[in-house]
Amino acid sequence: MAIGVEVDVDRMEAPPDVVIRRLPLYARSLRYLLQEGIESVSSQELGDRINVTAAQIRKDLSYFGEFGKQGIGYDVRKLLQQIEDILGLSHEWPVALVGIGHLGAAIARYEGFRQQGIRIAGLFDSNPEKIGTMIDDMPILSFDDADTVIKEQGIRLAIIAVPAQRAQEVADRLVMAGVRAILSYAPTVLQVPDGVWVRYIDPVAVLHSMTYYLARDVSGARQNDPET
Amino acid sequence: MAIGVEVDVDRMEAPPDVVIRRLPLYARSLRYLLQEGIESVSSQELGDRINVTAAQIRKDLSYFGEFGKQGIGYDVRKLLQQIEDILGLSHEWPVALVGIGHLGAAIARYEGFRQQGIRIAGLFDSNPEKIGTMIDDMPILSFDDADTVIKEQGIRLAIIAVPAQRAQEVADRLVMAGVRAILSYAPTVLQVPDGVWVRYIDPVAVLHSMTYYLARDVSGARQNDPET
DNA sequence: GAAAGTATGTGAAGTGTAGCACTAACTTTA
DNA sequence: TAAAGTTAGTGCTACACTTCACATACTTTC
Question: Which CATH number fits the domain that encloses residue A168?
Fold first, then answer.
């Protein structure tokens, strides 16, 4: 009985999540470089721009292959393309946006999404007064219809911008409909089944983590930290 | 010649930044517990709510003192008070908000700030058509006046919600005026002098870090991660 | 009031990430 | 064409954070 079967040693180790979170920053910076007409960059130059060490960038990229040329650096256009491929940005991702209050409406109007592979595919709210009205050229639909829309369009990504008390219920329904990744602006931790990704944006929490240092007059020497 | 003078061994080690970032989550959860009328909680129960291990919570708190009772747990009201004190939330923090576009306006209107010790003390924009108009009861001021207002009110915290191309210039002027901590919604890494804290909110980057997993159908087992 | 049960605080072990420093590969200079 | 200069990729080391597991302290039960 062959217990302890040899595992394929050559299998590439899965990149840590911290690395995955940095890739979008690299991609963003590369886009800016291209806009500036810069076509080649070293890990050092790239790192200086985003306050990450050159070694870190090289290490991070090494999880996915070899992209640079020794003595030269990286071809900006090619590296950007490759990082976008890694991130799955070779096609557009339709996203359901739930909760069209002040914040939700601002998110719906934000042009930065579409340009970066994120397409707001549906706006949902539960307030009857809002349903049927438009944000730019997009109609606000009833959240009751979210299930149908998500299934029809194969939506797997959602943004939640509802009050904290409603967030869990909304998340539950989204997951049931097929959503597998949620970006939540609601200030509460969501409980979701295995297989579903959740990330949070909470400006209050971020501010509070800085008041800690301000209250103590601790200098922010930790600038080396472009964390989202 | 006394080289290597003994350093005070009892000096408490500075808590890591990751710990500081979790404290606001603990505080938030404790507030919800209070709202539910729950006055006592164990590290286990608190951890279950926010997907953090009980040991982590206890270790984190141990950087600041002893707050619980063995065999019992924590007094919710008291622990909340103490965490808020640690975070410097015993008084209100005036904040300058720069960039009153869709997003900036939504931030200005968000009620979650005031309730949590953050007071939007001034709205600034450079668009002459906006200057002088009101958001709720607050006038939009010229960004040229930011320097004066920041100095007069002793503002040390700012939120930037301007386009990426303008963010660095805005940050520079804020820092010159006395701002020491910046929350930036602009999708670019800011260069600031030592002594200034910067944190970022970038929904596009967050979404892109999730498309990576969706594109690969990797299950989000890493739920143990209520990171902002 | 002793025994069983619960839960904190913490030293130590375990895990994971970042940075160093070197080799190899490529370009530019002389 | 050789030497000098640049920079990617990477094994190893160092550090930081997380988790474990236990001693301690308090409560509840019988």
Answer: 3.40.50.720
